[in-house]
Automatic annotation (TrEMBL):
This is KLHL11 protein. InterPro entries: BACK (IPR011705), BTB-kelch_protein (IPR017096), BTB/POZ_dom (IPR000210), Kelch-typ_b-propeller (IPR015915), Kelch_1 (IPR006652), SKP1/BTB/POZ_sf (IPR011333). It comes from the Eukaryota. The lineage of its organism: Eukaryota, Metazoa, Chordata, Cephalochordata, Leptocardii. CDD domains: BTB_POZ_ZBTB_KLHL-like. Gene3D superfamilies: 1.25.40.420, Kelch-type beta propeller, Potassium Channel Kv1.1, Chain A. Residues 34-101 form the BTB domain. Keywords: Kelch repeat, Repeat. It comes from Branchiostoma lanceolatum.
Length: 630
């Protein structure tokens, strides 16, 4: 007996609708009870008026009027092909639709003409699934024609995020004038270099110079010339023939550069969507002696401007937390909550698009003093200290071996293979499929990577291993020499280690690297600044070591007042390592405004990422300056 369901006190035969459609469809195939004919590109379709009217407001209106088609019983549809009409009739009689690349645009056009909203939505959904950098401009054009808001929004976002690639595609040089105008006028373009937009405009204009030359001045007015490096502006922009032949363009440059000099800030005229490379710092305790407090601040250092600013704060105060950037988001995990001073498993996610924090799934374990490492599309929480309740009810902290992985797609944490030894104060770097521990303390306080045999985790096999080679210079931090600071970073498939010392150290500084492919260590002799055997750092160092655009970023506390920043470059040319004289030059960066000066707090953590200019404008408070510390 057929299954039935109760609905509003009535029994409903579940299969009735499906079987009814099957019967009506069969009647059309057999030309049974059909009462109307559709013609499309030479092909005729016998149909039922009531089915067409039920599925399409266009036909419903047609059958209610005294038009010629109504009286003749025939309608010719010249706006679509027979293939598309067959597909639409199949949908009307069955509820199923075949959408594919070679017909989706015509299917969308016909559905829009026939006012078939459901079919139009299905076509738009298909286009959304196919949207990428190669077709985003075409998708935007379709979305504008058919008023597809979701597709238009998605296409605009794709263009903005990938404008560097979009403007280099050959077909982009053939887009119409209004599309170029919209593109260049978009304040949310995430363009890294404004000069690339200028180059595109010149190339687009010269593609059809007779037709497009007259439009160049009005389009050039959308180029943010004050965000173009001065050298490029002088050597390329001002000397471009399209510019030199236009008095309007020359006046625009003069006006913009003059106002920029008065304001002393190119950043004011940068696009809101322009992504700025920053070092983001969260958590930590304030520096009021004897009155320490946890902080919710999220601070941001802009190496290009040598400026500190504040962004949206966390909604809870935390110290000894971990931070990592993944897929354009920032994750802050674990640490000790303030003022309870209890280890937590909290995880918060910062959206660079919304400039806001969201709590996400907690870690499986409470952790502080651990590493949070992005690798192969996931986050890995490694080791650290967790709470333990001892006999008598006292609460203490113990180092752990456990490791867990965060899957961003389904927002879940899961345990994976544990380390072979307990490890806290963990630091790590990641390649495509391996995570190498560069520092960590075992239960005796010894650096587990001190001899160069770095523990590593293979994310594909879920197995821990250890580097076989030993390093030329023993590495320690907080053990043999309390004043030695170890900086580690990954570059060019090599893990680099920089040993820095402060003025009271009895140990020389050092520099060495581990070549992953060769499984080999190399010590590098460098010229240390001044007469020192090592670089002198202040005491009470809070250290952050993300890599920024080829730079090493180090931050330290100076007698509760000033901040030291080191971000000099190391240059690589082919297989030859060249160390510049200023590699270890240390600068002090400090604020110049009042008691609320922006500065990172001890026990905070940092990572490197790109964020939109608009957030920096909204939250920037202090301007900083650099003074030599050596």
């Amino acid at each position: 007996m057929a299954a039935a369901q109760q609905l509003d006190g009535r029994r409903v035969w579940v299969r009735h609708q499906f079987e009814l459609l099957q019967r009506i469809s069969k009647q059309r195939e057999e030309d049974k009870y059909t009462d109307f004919t559709l013609k499309s590109k030479g092909k005729e379709f016998r149909v039922h008026r009531n089915v067409l009217a039920a599925c399409s407001p266009y036909f419903d209106t047609l059958f209610q009027t005294n038009m010629m088609e109504q009286q003749s019983g025939t309608a010719t549809l010249n706006f679509t092909s027979a293939e598309v009409m067959e597909e639409l009739l199949a949908y009307m009689y069955s509820g199923s639709l075949r959408v594919q690349e070679d017909m989706v645009e015509e299917l969308l056009k016909t559905a829009d003409h026939l006012l078939m909203v459901e079919v139009k939505d299905l076509c738009i959904q298909y286009l959304l699934e196919q949207l990428d950098v190669s077709n985003c401009l075409a998708m935007k054009a379709l979305a504008e024609v058919y008023k597809a808001d979701n597709l238009l929004k998605a296409a605009n976002e794709t263009i903005r995020k990938n404008v560097h690639t979009v403007i280099k595609r050959e077909e982009t040089l053939d887009i119409p004038l209004h599309s170029v105008q919209e593109l260049l006028a978009d304040d949310l373009l995430q363009v890294a270099k404004e000069e690339e937009l200028f180059g595109f405009l010149v190339a687009w204009t010269k593609r059809d110079l007779p037709e497009r030359k007259d439009h160049f001045p009005s389009l050039f007015a959308h180029i943010r010339v004050t965000d173009i490096p001065k050298r490029y502006l002088e050597e390329y922009v001002k000397t471009e023939e399209l510019v030199t032949e236009s008095e309007e363009c020359q006046k625009y440059i003069a006006k913009e550069t003059s106002s920029s000099e008065e304001e002393s800030s190119q950043q004011l005229n940068a696009r809101s969507g322009k992504m700025e490379e920053v070092v983001m710092v969260t958590g930590g305790v304030s520096r009021s002696p004897g009155n320490e407090e946890g902080t919710t601040e999220m601070l941001c250092y802009l190496p290009r401007q040598d400026t500190w600013c504040q962004l949206c704060p966390l909604n809870y105060a935390v110290t000894f937390n971990a931070i990592a950037a993944l897929n354009g988001k920032v994750y802050v995990a674990g640490g000790r909550l303030w003022p309870e001073n209890r280890v937590t498993s909290f995880v918060s996610c910062y959206s660079v698009v919304e400039n806001s924090w969201t709590r996400v799934r907690n870690m499986s374990a409470k952790r502080a003093n651990f590493a949070l490492v992005p690798c192969n599309g996931c986050l890995y929480a490694i080791g650290g200290k967790s709470e333990r309740i001892f006999l008598g009810g006292s609460i203490g902290e113990v180092p752990v071996t456990t490791v867990e992985r965060y899957n961003e797609a389904n927002h879940t944490w899961s345990y994976i293979s544990s380390m072979t030894k307990v490890c806290s104060d963990v630091e790590a770097v990641a390649t495509n499929d391996h995570i190498y521990l560069t520092f960590g303390k075992d239960q005796n306080g010894t650096n587990i990577a001190g001899n160069g045999q770095l523990p590593y985790y293979n994310v594909k096999t879920n197995v821990w291993g250890k580097v076989s080679a030993t390093c030329p210079v023993s590495m320690s931090r907080g053990m043999d020499d309390e004043n030695q600071i170890l900086v580690s970073f990954l570059r060019d498939s090599k893990i680099h280690f920089l040993g820095l010392v402060d003025g009271e150290s009895a140990t020389d500084g050092f520099y060495q690297y581990y070549d992953i492919a060769a499984d080999q260590w190399t010590a590098v002799t460098i010229d240390w600044p001044g007469n020192s055997p090592g670089i002198f750092l202040p005491r009470n160092i809070s250290l952050y070591t993300p890599v920024h655009n080829g730079n090493i970023f180090i931050c330290c506390t100076l007698d509760n007042e000033n901040i030291g920043v080191h971000s000099e470059k190391t240059y690589y040319r082919g297989h030859m390592l060249t160390l510049k004289d200023k590699l270890l030059h240390l600068e002090r960066t400090y604020t110049t405004t009042g008691v609320s000066s922006i500065r990172p707090a001890p026990t905070s953590s940092a990572c490197h990422l790109d964020i939109p200019q608009k957030h920096l404008r909204a939250f920037a408070k202090d301007v900083t300056m650099s003074v030599s510390l050596l």
